[in-house]
């Protein structure tokens, strides 16, 4: 999507046809997910087949997620579409080939129309990520509800804030640890 639709990554100039068809079953987005899932499954099987130790290898995925919310009432459908494309489909496609699920969470994204919006009253990191610890809590609860049947651990593989002056780093870490703790308590109760 960031290559062919947004042109943000190398090799991609935005292409109207790619944008219009990217989320169709034969579109570039779903084709990329399909081949990533095949590659993951083959790597998982290969790694497990080559293990000669008593301890089995641990293979997982580090899945990047954001908590998305609509800017206004007319953006609710765009949030639903974004979540349907990014939150669970890839993990769903490989969930039988996972020994853990890693979650990379950096913050909240506010969707307005076809893009993202910076909201005046929200707090942001230097890289433009919305600081929203409750989003991590909500993501952990959603992932637990969806994948608890797998009986595999969740690992927060990435979380942090870009803050050259360290003004918000300590509160950010503390608030995100508290959000993680709250999710653990909720799941265990």
TrEMBL record:
It comes from Oryza sativa subsp. indica (Rice). The keyword Glycoprotein applies. Gene3D superfamilies: Glycosidases. Keywords: Glycoprotein, Glycosidase, Hydrolase. The keyword rRNA-binding does not apply. It comes from the Eukaryota. This is Beta-glucosidase-like. One of its GO terms (biological process) is carbohydrate metabolic process. GO terms for molecular function: beta-D-fucosidase activity; beta-galactosidase activity; beta-glucosidase activity. Belongs to the glycosyl hydrolase 1 family.
